[in-house]
Amino acid sequence: MNADHMTVRVARKVQEALDICTFELIEPEGRALPVFSAGSHVEVHVPGGITRQYSLCNEPSEKHRYLIGVLKDAASRGGSKAMHELVNEGDLLQISAPKNHFALAHEARHSLLLAGGIGVTPILCMAERLAMVGESFEMHYCARSPERAAFRGRIAASGFADKVAFHFDDGDAAQKLDISALLAQPSRGTHLYVCGPKGFMDAGLGAARKAGWPEAQLHYEFFSAEVVKLDTDRAFEVKLASSGRTILISKDQTVVEALSEAGIEVATSCGEGICGTCITRVLEGTPDHRDMYLMPDEQARNDQFTPCCSRSKSPVLVLDL
């Protein structure tokens, strides 16, 4: 085991809800795993050469295992399908050490946790951590139906079950979540955490921003995103600061693809602008940010961008490569 990646064994694979499985990962020799905090994820090297990020959803005090939940997505590009169909108990997997881009702000007086579908995985871990340390919070869990809501039994058996409200798309209107009403009155001491499908994320974050929530109190993590392509996209150039070499990026290429063709490899993972693995410093020029990772104020500085999906507004970007 090293600091960057490790081999784990699938100790248990459990059907938690319709199309959702959990995988319990352990160190093959029974050694302790690297510590993690609520909101962390690991990158899993899935059969077929795919790398996917999955949030850890067990209690961070547990050192003997990692638990991940995986939704078998009908629109899967191969990752979740492979996890469900090809990965079984006893199999060995390569994973990264835990990373956390979705950490709790423990200075908050109150935490408002919003989970949509499989987005419950990091949110549940946060709820358990907040309950353990005695901090104020409430959790709203939205799912298409009870059959598709994972961890209902775990939540019901917890000491914080009374802080969790379930909202089902197929239920009566009275129990559905009114996000705009919930977020209509921002509080200086309340921090908002949102995780789920893009539509759910857009609704939650959009309502919060419309109501005037400060960006510093908004925390979120996207699981997937579509790489945005526009009819107005045009070719541009990137210049490598180390050598002065200039590379043309055609209108139909990503920067990562063009650099790879030129023999220059940039570390990537998601390929969708949600993980931050490929972030590259921009020394000159103006990026066209299309990621879901950088905060709005970070994008506004224009000193870094995600070459897996973002482009350029200026004819040339000078990169710290």
UniProtKB/TrEMBL annotation:
CDD domains per the UniProt record, alphabetical: fer2, PDR_like
Question: Which Gene Ontology terms cover its molecular function?
Answer: oxidoreductase activity
Q: Which InterPro entries does the annotation name?
A: 2Fe-2S_ferredoxin-like_sf (IPR036010), 2Fe-2S_ferredoxin-type (IPR001041), 2Fe2S_fd_BS (IPR006058), Beta-grasp_dom_sf (IPR012675), DmmA-like_N (IPR054582), FAD-bd_FR_type (IPR017927), FNR_nucleotide-bd (IPR039261), MRET (IPR050415)
PROSITE patterns given in the database record: 2FE2S_FER_1 (PS00197), 2FE2S_FER_2 (PS51085), FAD_FR (PS51384)
Q: Which UniProt keywords apply?
A: 2Fe-2S, Flavoprotein, FMN, Iron, Iron-sulfur, Metal-binding, Oxidoreductase
Could you say which cofactors this protein requires? FMN
SUPFAM superfamilies assigned to the protein according to its UniProt record, in alphabetical order: 2Fe-2S ferredoxin-like, Ferredoxin reductase-like, C-terminal NADP-linked domain, Riboflavin synthase domain-like
Enzyme Commission code: 1.-.-.-
Q: Does the keyword Lipoprotein apply?
A: no
Task: Tell me what this protein is called.
Answer: PDR/VanB family oxidoreductase
Does the keyword Oxidoreductase feature in the UniProt annotation?
yes
Q: Which residues form the FAD-binding FR-type domain?
A: 3-105
Q: Where is the 2Fe-2S ferredoxin-type domain?
A: 236-321
